[in-house]
């Protein structure tokens, strides 16, 4: 019928998937361990996004779940629930062969224990060559890559030395080269400076920064070392298996103004730090109020009468 053309309303725009443009996506990740019949929830619905090219530090008390998170991202441990995706690889859903390929090519890993990162009877050149040989890279290309990596992090002089002929800092820098050998998108480091004095720790941190800036790896480093976390643009704190706060630093080298943010998950949950809860005796139930530009959280106990100090 002329003049009465049917027009349908436009389909509602679909919200982009959480973390659709991030390189690392943790979406409500849960990891439960069973130990002697006891269940330990190491990760309790952790959300985290890391953009390609970022270098972030992860901090948190002992037992908060930092290592578990890295093990999941490394493809060593699978999430019990939730979604962990790195460079498009869904880590809850990798077959055996895919997992091997993922660990060989997509992520590199550096451990705290310097000795465990290397092989006692191999020189630095040989140990950086090894993952490339396993990946089937041609000899000439391997040699170029090995030299380039050792030079980039300042340990070219260690090329023909075995671990017992290197300092702890040199060993860790060689370990970073091993982790980077097959050009992973993401470099994961679990307390890489934990066994080192502060000067040597700085050299290792500088090598991580080189990996990030010059060699193109996105870096996630777990650390207790405030000197390390103070030098990255974003530090994420984990508390009780969840990301609880983030410190963003602006300015050259990440040093400059630092501002702390609490992290709110997509269900609107925010973790109130224990010091705050204890200071105001906030327990299971709190009062929330919306003000013009902020939200107030108050104890559910009746407020004290300022003249008597007694509850009103
Ligand atoms: N394989 C495992 N079996 C049983 N429980 C585990 C296992 N791995 C970790 N846990 C438990 O999970 C929780 C988180 O541990 P995780 O090692 O991730 O913490 P963390 O923050 O890295 O601690 P730290 O700083 O001491 O290394 C702890 O309670 C720990 O005991």
TrEMBL record:
InterPro entries assigned: AAA+_ATPase, ABC_transporter-like_ATP-bd, ABC_transporter-like_CS, ABC_transpr_LolD-like, MacB-like_ATP-bd, P-loop_NTPase, SpoVT-AbrB_dom
Recorded GO MF terms: ATP binding; ATP hydrolysis activity; DNA binding; transmembrane transporter activity
Boundaries of every SpoVT-AbrB domain copy: 259-302
ABC transporter domain: from which residue to which, for each copy? 24-266
Annotated SUPFAM superfamilies: P-loop containing nucleoside triphosphate hydrolases (SSF52540)
Concerning PROSITE patterns, the annotation shows: ABC_TRANSPORTER_1, ABC_TRANSPORTER_2, SPOVT_ABRB
GO (cellular component) term, any one: plasma membrane
Write the record's keywords in alphabetical order, separated by commas.
ATP-binding, DNA-binding, Nucleotide-binding, Transport
Top-level taxon in the UniProt lineage: Bacteria
* Transmembrane domains' residue ranges: none
The family database entries (Pfam families) matched by this protein are listed as:
ABC_tran
- Name the record gives this protein: ABC transporter ATP-binding protein
This protein's species is Nocardioides anomalus
């Amino acid at each position: 019928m002329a003049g009465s053309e049917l027009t349908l309303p436009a389909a509602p725009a679909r919200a982009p998937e959480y973390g659709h443009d991030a390189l690392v996506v943790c979406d409500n990740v849960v990891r439960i361990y069973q130990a002697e019949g006891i269940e330990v929830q190491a990760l309790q619905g952790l959300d985290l996004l890391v953009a390609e090219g970022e270098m972030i530090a992860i901090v948190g008390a002992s037992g908060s779940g930092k290592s578990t998170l890295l093990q999941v991202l490394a493809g060593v441990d699978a999430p019990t629930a939730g979604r962990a995706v790195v460079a498009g690889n869904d880590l809850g859903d990798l077959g055996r062969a895919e997992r091997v390929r993922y660990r060989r090519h997509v992520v590199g890993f550096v451990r705290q224990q310097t000795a465990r990162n290397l092989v006692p009877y191999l020189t630095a050149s040989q140990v950086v060559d090894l993952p490339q040989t396993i990946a089937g890279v041609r000899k000439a290309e391997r040699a170029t890559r090995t030299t380039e990596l050792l030079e980039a992090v300042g340990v070219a002089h260690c090329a023909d030395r075995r671990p017992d002929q290197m300092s702890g800092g040199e060993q860790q820098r060689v370990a970073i080269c091993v982790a980077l050998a097959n050009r992973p998108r993401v470099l994961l480091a679990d307390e890489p400076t934990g066994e080192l004095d502060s000067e040597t720790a700085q050299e290792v941190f500088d090598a991580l920064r080189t990996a990030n800036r010059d060699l193109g790896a996105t870096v996630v480093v777990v650390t207790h070392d405030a000197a390390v976390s103070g030098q990255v643009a974003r530090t994420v704190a984990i508390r009780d298996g969840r990301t609880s706060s983030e410190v963003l630093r602006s300015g050259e080298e990440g040093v400059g103004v630092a501002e702390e943010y609490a992290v709110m998950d997509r269900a609107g949950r925010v973790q109130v730090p224990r010091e705050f809860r204890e200071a105001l005796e906030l327990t299971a139930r709190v009062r929330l109020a919306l003000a013009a530009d902020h939200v107030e959280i108050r104890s559910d106990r009746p407020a004290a009468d300022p003249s008597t100090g007694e509850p009103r």
